[in-house]
Amino acid sequence: MTAVGQGKGGRAGARRATLATVADLAGYHVSTVSRVLNGTTVPGARSASSAAAERIRQVAREVGYVPNAQAAALRRQRTGMVGVIMARMTDTVAATIYEGVERAAAEHGYQTLVMNSWDDDETRARCVDLLMAHGVDALIHGDALADGSSLQVLERSGLPFVLVNRGAGAYPSVTADDRGGGRQAAEHLLALGHREVGVLAGLPYAGNAIERTRGFCETFAEAGHPVRPDRVVPTTFDSAGGRTGADRLLRAGDGPTALFAVSDAAAIGALGSLRDQGLHPGRDVSVVGFNDMPIAGDLTVPLTTVRSPMREIGERSVALLLAVMEGEPGEVVRFPTELVVRETTGPAPGLTRGR
Amino acid sequence: MTAVGQGKGGRAGARRATLATVADLAGYHVSTVSRVLNGTTVPGARSASSAAAERIRQVAREVGYVPNAQAAALRRQRTGMVGVIMARMTDTVAATIYEGVERAAAEHGYQTLVMNSWDDDETRARCVDLLMAHGVDALIHGDALADGSSLQVLERSGLPFVLVNRGAGAYPSVTADDRGGGRQAAEHLLALGHREVGVLAGLPYAGNAIERTRGFCETFAEAGHPVRPDRVVPTTFDSAGGRTGADRLLRAGDGPTALFAVSDAAAIGALGSLRDQGLHPGRDVSVVGFNDMPIAGDLTVPLTTVRSPMREIGERSVALLLAVMEGEPGEVVRFPTELVVRETTGPAPGLTRGR
DNA sequence: ACGTTATAGCCAAAGGATTGCACAACCCGC
DNA sequence: GCGGGTTGTGCAATCCTTTGGCTATAACGT
């Protein structure tokens, strides 16, 4: 295993150029090179002569010098990376929030190091450890447990962090106003005359799902039409979960006339279930989703849903994190949601449907 | 700025425990601690006594020692991280592939460091630099330009890399058999009697889009019904792109009777366009997508599409990367696709449609 | 012409983990 | 009881950058 034999092209095996390489070639000391390349315009006015600076930059470019972030991180005690934990990237909601996070972080000179926790406790814990090992300066936690149980270790570690998408207790977090969104969905269905409704309630330990369900159910209860407990079924957030849940709710003889899904993907799964049973969304059974993901409006029967500003939520979480890193107190931020009425909802059919 | 003032709980300001901390407390030398904690079961069998090992592990646990990956990476010349560049995570295809990558990488003890390039040249280049700076051991490139122009720098750098999702020339890559998939879509539509078809062709510089379009068009040409060039419109891969493209194709007086979209999202966008024009998918206009993302089968009119094993592609790319890192030659892998016929395709209507 | 002050650049010490080498103690056999 | 072979540990160099301290030179004022 002598030669490195990777890229066929260049000087394979020749290790990356370091400060020393540049210093030698340019005829300066590494410290000078470092200062030039870092543009240390800071206090001591430790600037190099412009001649030196130019020469050094020239050489650096020639040898393709890329600073070793590891070494730099070791010396200054910061990596410029923030860790991001998400349940899974194929959840469009998570992905969109993440895009917001990445963009905002980049704007402030931070890299993001993402990991998928798969909503699994052990993996979640391992993520935190790994991210800490890689020296992230802070953490954005996208899949906290509603009871905050996963966060105590984190808090003890002293690593600054904020929650996003799923809140938990008083921990600093940025989410949609999930409860309010649930209420909006409920009010809409109530206004359409629906009385017997079901909820595809999402994961029972996810703060956002809980709040959405709560807002929805309490609104129906206040209107004098409490949601039957057996009509609130836990699901995953994806379409498969929505489908299974809807199957269960609709196959029962006295199915509900409307469904509220705590995610658009689950709502689409419910649409699949409806279709299989020959039911038409918006006419036979109404369906309301959550988030308003981009395809919602393009469906052949466009989805009524509660819009949440996902990307903004991601961006805001970075701002909040930065504040927390500065030692500021850290707040609980909730973005208002907006009901988007399309065609999967319609007036309630006669109290008892056939079939 | 004396106290650190982050986590309120624990010993804030107390820096992370290091090897030295553990060594002192356990009464051993840091080198011994290092060996124990790394389980250096390697060749020299220079193991520590089990007494020492136990004590050391005990102490490490007590003080919550987390190794500093930066420092370790500096010393051994590897970080255990592979960089991943994707156009954007909200593209479900990219996200799914990434999930495969992450999982497979983790299985082999690697972390992934993802970045979104937004399909922008400058950003793409910056991603590579940043990933190199962070010392990734290798790179998985998910948004190569078809002409390979973005890859020469990379090749020169000597960093091992493979392409995924979008191939380019003879560079090692893992993709679906995009051309074959395009053919399958075409054969299906031909069999249904469609002669006048349009293509939502994706980004003109993306290898996968190009190949899918090519496979499709060549099959129609071979059948004696070449696709009119003005009916092949470039689009983005998302639903907005598909919608705009379909609007353009269908608004022309003599619209095609079928559309092939190089992504499911674009296909769904096309469905939106159809709906707006009062056209029924599968009856008035047939639509074929690509990838078979999970919701495809749950749509109210389920989507006919060409299935590609996205997650597997991601996983395989890691395997290939590992091989390349070992100095093996690096191949071009293409996974076969499978046509999934659902309900957005049907027999071609009379040669000229009304309206 | 000499003292004073910038300026440009070098020196060397971290920072935390890994690892080849050296060393001491111990075991065994004869 | 001593040589040869293990075995468990310690020593110290090394990876690359950053940065406070320091020196030498140049510039400037009177």
From TrEMBL, chains A, B:
Q: Name one Pfam family in it.
A: Peripla_BP_1
A GO term, aspect molecular function: DNA-binding transcription factor activity
What is the name of this protein?
A: LacI family transcriptional regulator
Q: Which organism is it from?
A: Nocardioides simplex
